User: What shape does this take?
Amino acid sequence: MSNSAKNKRKHIIDNSEDLKDKITESIDDFKLRAELLVANLKEGGDDGYDHSTSTAGEKGLKSGKVSELTVIAPLKEGGAERLRKVLEIAGGNLEGATRVGTLHDLRFVFLDDDTRVLFCTAYDGDWDPYIDDFATKIPELMDILFGSVKGWPGIKDPSVKQFILDHQITAAGWYVGVPHLTIQDIRRQDRIVKGINKALDEAQS
Assistant: This one.
């Protein structure tokens, strides 16, 4: 068999294998889509909300009005011990964060034998104004909390946004139960419900 014929045969075989792989991938993809559809039909429910996601900025996902921020960063030598002490002194109460009016929740988790820290928050709106709020409304609290992170430039340093982006990981999945309500909406509705309940209690007494 000539080299030309051999090359042609090899090309046909390679193309066949490539086509086979693509078909297999398509079938696997179809199976996953079908399984997810069935699971949603059996276990899911239509609450009338749009739970689709979009981007919150350069990184992070957004569902409705609520966005996520997930950061994993290395800690300084002894940083985990210091941060634990800070959180212990706070007694789990970081109420200063209330000044950031768009913040739903935040959490710290120590990873890899206390060498890294996971920081996650849920917040309203887009990434840039959220980070600006940290810098203008709770700068001292931010620097106390993140002073244990290796390379932390300080929340007011011009390079801080890039530092955060360098350590931020966009969530692979993001679900918000009530995506159209901001934290201010939730608080306002809570006050309304409390007011109604108080009026009902007084009317019955």
The beta strands are 53-55, 61-63, 66-74, 103-111, 116-124. The chain has two domains: 1-45, 53-179.
